[in-house]
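Annotated sample (chain length 124).
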Amino acid sequence: MTIDFISSFGGLDELVQIIYQGAHRFVLLSTIDDEKWSLHLGMSGPEGRWWRGIWAQDDILSLVGSNPSAILLDTFAEKLADTFTSGDLFISGWNPTERDAEIKASPPAFPPKERPQDSTSSCS
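Output written by the structure step:
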């Protein structure tokens, strides 16, 4: 199956969210192109740096199944956009000094250590 990223995930294109977490502030940017969904996560301040995560077709299909309907893809993308725009995200695994830190952005109700299987890709 080939995913039409622009049609299904267009609602995630050019989204920007600021996430306040304790004394730290993160900026999360979302973009979509014909082949992938990309997230750029920046940490502000003197220790600031940027991380990037990319979800291509195989990554999305591993989450929603190998032959999802257009309705399922649209619903999945809408839920992602709602979570993103609500600001209801928790950033974990970040380390300002580690170049290949495995970053997770997830709803706070599902901290990474409590999820049975991680449903977010990492940013590096």
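Annotation: The first strand starts at residue 15 and ends at 21.
Annotation: Residues 5-114 form one domain.
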